[in-house]
């Protein structure tokens, strides 16, 4: 769960930038990456974001964990495009009576989409690694994202760690009682663990709702208040966006 900057090094240049500036910049960059037709611009964005992650000293383990799921999706996507899409045959072999054909144009299209995915994920990763979660939620509220959605995100982020602690306690208790000694027993223990967590989540949500209503909660969160923009940050972001826009056009 270490995907936001409160779990990482905080004394870097990106930590002091207004979250609203970083969020808008990331959204513009995402739009440029996803609308680009080739692969050069997403690779440039990927290299820049990776350099930013190295600059703020993101641990390698956390970095690889963050990119593991997108990489799995990319591998499946490239294989599907390579073997089931395209018209230019690269090779064709028969294995156990099944004809397997690879297409060069399908591979090129799959790699192009893969570059877009990696570029987009790297932008979101750098945004998350350099921005505290509460500051990001504050920026979302500034963008007029519905208050109820922001509220749900904040509570979910807070209590997902509580649920993880409950899961760890139940798992350790099951393991000490040989609950995972064998496939069938392990499957049953996992089902018990899942059911217990669902019940605990409902119980906690009801208890939290009642307690906050009793304390007069009306949906207004002081942490979502905004400070004035700083001219240096805004002008710097505009310059970088302009440069990236020119690169998107000419590359």
Describe the structure.
- The structure is a single chain.
- By secondary structure, the protein is mostly helical.
- It has 2 domains: 1-143 and 224-251, no CATH class; 146-220.
- It has helices at 19-35, 40-55, 60-84, 104-130, 133-142, 147-176, 183-214, 231-250, and strands spanning 89-95, 98-103.
- The chain has a two-stranded antiparallel sheet.
- Helix 5 runs antiparallel to helix 6 and helix 6 crosses helix 7 (183-214).
- The two termini are 36 Å apart.
- Residues 1-6 have low confidence and may be disordered.
Descriptive key words:
single chain; 251 residues; mainly alpha; two-stranded antiparallel sheet; 2 strands; 71% helix; 5% strand; disordered N terminus
> How far apart are the first and last residues' alpha carbons, in Å?
36 Å
Run of helices and strands: HHHEEHHHHH
Give me the number of helical elements. Answer: 8
Q: Which percent band covers the strand fraction?
A: 5-15%
User: Could you say how many structural domains there are in total?
Assistant: 2
The average pLDDT value, as a whole number, equals 83
DSSP, total strands: 2
Order of strands across the widest beta sheet? 1-2
Helix-strand makeup class: mainly alpha
- Poorly predicted runs are 1-6
Radius of gyration: 23 Å
The rough form would be described as flat
Largest sheet entry: 2 strands, antiparallel
Helix content: over 70%
